[in-house]
Design goal:
Strand content: under 5%
Helix content: over 70%
Structural class: mainly alpha
Largest sheet: none
Order of helices and strands: HHHHHHHHHHHHHHHHHH
Radius of gyration: 23 Å
Distance between the termini: 89 Å
């Protein structure tokens, strides 16, 4: 006959085993109970993923709170916090959830970016901004791939960094990284690209409005310049409305045009990678990533006016949280030590790419607008 002391001891043991599971330590399954219990569909996957996903979401929440109170980029906070919890990705129960956050949650967040964009917004800009954006993005990615080889870096990092600088900062870096070959330094390169592009975007948000004033650009041309050069959407909005509401509107639409380019750029990279892969000679075919299909479908549906504003607002908010959670997961997969081994060359490359795209857009604004 069990005593109260035995009951309390069993309860305490179960509690400590649960806490160990949250810490990422392995927990043995009760043999007798596990065999006779019936599981709901997907319950095993949920049990396997929830510790790592819960940690990533918690980091995202903390990062958002700090970003709101201190005005720093939320992506940067999520990265740094994630990297401090790198030990959770080295062993234990958190690994599957961290992998899920950095891959599946990321792709879902990128797909939802399509809800921001409509065809009328893009076409309303006119021909010059559209051509400028296409030339700027294409030349920046090409320049990145070219200079990466000359600087002793992998060409894939040049494509990754060029896409991040040219399109939409951290979001583009994550999307492009998801279709690039998975080398041993792939995670480190992605983290490095996100950290650098976020820092450069913050610097640009502060300095570029001063540059437009020094160059005596009117509000429309200033909006085109800011939207065509600053990396992240949030910094574009901040810099544009810092000058005037009209400048902010123009900058936002130009930036959305750059976000639209994420679809053809990522698809092209995925196609090229598939053709160059080990199975290319054997007739392997490039497949369209599902998150790009979702991105394109949302752009089309939103352009047709089938999405109400509350729906698009909710999609944008969910997308933002997914990307921050994915960044936290990606951070947990990377150590400070691995990041420091990259050296100064990747940062120098991204600075040069930033200067390049700023020069391309400035020439277009001064002579063709």
């Amino acid at each position: 006959m069990n005593s109260d002391l035995d009951t309390d001891t069993a309860a305490a043991r179960a509690l400590f085993q649960s806490l160990e599971g949250m810490e990422g330590l392995s927990r043995p399954e009760p043999a007798a109970a596990a065999k006779g219990a019936t599981r709901l569909p997907g319950q095993s996957a949920l049990i396997k993923l929830y510790p790592g996903v819960l940690v990533a979401v918690t980091i995202a929440l903390a990062s958002q709170w700090l970003a709101q109170h201190y005005g720093a980029p939320v992506m940067l906070f999520a990265l740094l916090f994630g990297m401090t919890f790198h030990f959770l990705h080295q062993e234990g129960r958190c690994i599957p959830g961290i992998e899920f956050s950095s891959k599946a949650v990321l792709r879902f967040g990128v797909a939802l970016l399509g809800a921001r964009i409509t065809a009328s917004q893009i076409l309303g800009l006119g021909l010059t901004p559209i051509v400028t954006v296409i030339v700027g993005i294409g030349s920046t990615i090409g320049l990145g791939a070219f200079l990466a080889k000359r600087m002793g870096l992998r060409s894939s990092f040049g494509v990754l960094s060029g896409g991040a600088v040219g399109i939409c900062g951290a979001s583009a870096a994550l999307a492009i990284a998801s279709v690039l070959p998975r080398g041993k330094d792939a995670e480190r390169d992605t983290i490095l690209a996100v950290v650098t592009v976020t820092a450069l975007s913050t610097i640009a948000m502060i300095t570029y409005p001063l540059l437009t004033a020094a160059l005596h650009l009117d509000h429309t041309r200033a909006g085109i310049f800011l939207g065509g050069t600053i990396h992240d959407v949030a910094q574009v909005v901040g810099a544009g409305y810092m000058i005037s509401p009209h400048t902010g509107d123009v900058a936002t639409y130009v930036k959305l045009l750059r976000v639209t380019m994420l679809l053809p750029v990522v698809f092209t990279i995925a196609f090229v990678v598939a053709r160059m892969g080990p199975g290319a000679a054997g007739g392997a075919k490039a497949t369209v990533p599902l998150f790009l299909v979702g991105f394109a479908a949302l752009v089309i549906v939103n352009s047709l006016g089938w999405l109400a504003k509350p729906v698009t607002d909710a999609a944008n908010e969910i997308s933002r949280w997914c990307l921050v959670t994915a960044i936290a997961g990606l951070g947990m997969k990377t150590s400070f030590k691995d990041l420091m081994t990259a050296g100064w060359r990747p940062v120098a490359l991204m600075v040069f790419e930033t200067v390049w795209i700023a020069g391309v857009v400035l020439v277009a604004v001064e002579f063709f607008t």
